Amino acid sequence: GQNIDQPTEMTATEGAIVQINCTYQTSGFNGLFWYQQHAGEAPTFLSYNVLDGLEEKGRFSSFLSRSKGYSYLLLKELQMKDSASYLCAVRDSNYQLIWGAGTKLIIKP
Amino acid sequence: DAMVIQNPRYQVTQFGKPVTLSCSQTLNHNVMYWYQQKSSQAPKLLFHYYDKDFNNEADTPDNFQSRRPNTSFCFLDIRSPGLGDAAMYLCATSRDRRGGQETQYFGPGTRLLVL
After folding, report:
1. Which of residues 1-20 of A touch B (CB under 8 A)?
2. How many CA atoms lie within 13 A of A36 on its CB side?
3. How many CB pairs under 8 A join A and B?
4. Distance CA B84, CA B78 (A)
5. Distances (CA, A) of A106 to A13, A18, A56, A100
6. Using one digit for the tens of pLDDT, what is the confidence trace for B60-106?
């Protein structure tokens, strides 16, 4: 079966750095997405990786290792508004998005 | 602004009473998706349309149906809602499901409550 694993919940301090990990086992691989979802709202796109390495976008960076089936999302200079769930999703060989359950990130002052 | 719109944001229905959720988009995207998401769970794909081509997920209950009368609109019909169908229903669009960096754009969701 297809599976995406990410921690259920993480806590971090305002101004700090946090890394949210995602491991996947899917039927094929056609890219990995990270989405942010605030409570009661829809997911919004954060980043996309299809090749190994680091993609940087302002305070957010995403890393991919296809051989290890592993990605992480790195959030720097954390702000209170970053409190949200972060969902990892992999596009499989059928171009279907396989979703993780999300990591709830709690930011403390 | 181009966007994905869902109405209503909150819907209350009675057990067994049919309900329809609506989604519209101004992005002119080929593909429209309906997801069900329960608290602290991954979004679960119910079905998607590639243009007019309907694709049902194997584990989507028969209780759930969909219509896409034109490019802009897509409807989710729940014929006989049960208590287990209470969830957030998310509509999403994308330009082409085989696109490279092509991501899915989500509407704000409709939260369904079944009494």
Report:
1. 4, 8
2. 14
3. 44
4. 12
5. 8, 11, 22, 18
6. 999 999 999 999 999 999 999 999 999 999 999 998 766 566 788 99
